[in-house]
Amino acid sequence: MTLAGLLAFSGPALASTDTAAVPLSALSVLPFALLLVCIAVVPLVAAHWWHSHVNKALVAMLFAVPVAAYLLYLGEETQGASIRALAHELQQYISFIVLLAALYTISGGIVVTGDIRATPMVNTLFLAAGAVLANLIGTTGASMLLIRPLLQTNSERRNTRHTPVFFIFVVSNLGGVLTPLGDPPLFLGFLNGVDFDWTLRLWPQWLTANGLVLAVFFVWDSLAFHREKERDLLLDRVLMTPLRLRGKINLLFLVGVLLAVVLQSPRLAHALRSYLPEWHYCPDLTLTWPWAELIMVVMAILSWFLTPRSLREANAFTWSAIIEVAVLFLGIFVTMVPALEVLKQNGHSMHLTEPWQYFWLTGALSSFLDNAPTYMTFATLAAGQGDFRQLMHDAPLLLAAVSCGAVFMGANTYIGNGPNFMVKAIAEERGYSMPSFFGYMLYSGAILLPIFFIITIVFF
Fold it and tell me: Where are the beta strands (DSSP E) in 16-107?
């Protein structure tokens, strides 16, 4: 059966697919677990081999193809429920990849240039701006947009090893918890019924986490600033060029992507419609699949053709990162089907009832595995026999704990979130000495873990 056939199999209402009738063995979860382990471990032990996207695809398909065949085989026995479950995840995969690719393409055409004074306040404001921007163009987009001007601004200073590390903490992770655009796990929650604006209620956790990290950074950077040699500080004052934003046309395309996501929510689409002039006939603005995805594709195509190539070259833009995500997540979404179903049927036996349990378990796994499937796993576990929309209304604190754990604790290691390694690589290209894998964990353990304990006590 082709991908198109799968998506057509259960009609247009895939988002409400009922898969409760799918009888699956606990062993069917094994491919999902093994794939996540491979994604976490293989880059550390066979980095050169893993660098090839073909090899990543081979690993992903090694686990995904048997699972897909198994679900198709069960189709007749389950009156099509297993095929509907597979089709549902494939549709979500397409929506997921289209959003990430659109944000990646559009943000890759925006360039911030300049070199201003690298004072502790300026550096702190850079990180704070990234924490806000991450919710509009994603943690990956904000990281790629801001890391180069931040590194250039600090290029005259010498005591700056901590700066990219804190950038990873704030811009690449902690900042992106307020909207589904911010981090992939939250977009998956949105696709499964969580309201677009529901994550805005996480602003106290967002403000606490980012505020505390920025406070630590400001003190740390102030001490480092006072250790700089006078000639370096003089050079920093002399070699100054104003910040400049180029590729502004891409801001329009970002607005287009934002509207395409927002209008997938019937409630928000109706609210937006109420602000429009009263026409004789005003159509429903709600976007159903695949219209929102098509709009995002159009925005990305317009960005690609209307942005000067020189701007993408200035960003060192390549397709490598998004190809890697597309290849690996195809395997993740397929192998995730049995895992989610088994959790629905047997999750009650794990006796997880407290928000702090979900916060730390989701976070611990998100530190070493990809945070998107980790979010789905624990949100499904928290929802039990219900769905994400019911979880949002009946147990919002559990959903908040899963959301914050998945987004925040991706900062604990280099492999916790995609932008982490990308920022590390860019910093090293610019001559910055980045900590080793375990050296970075010393930073995160000393700085982030106490803050996460505070968040646990205050909120969960």
Answer: none
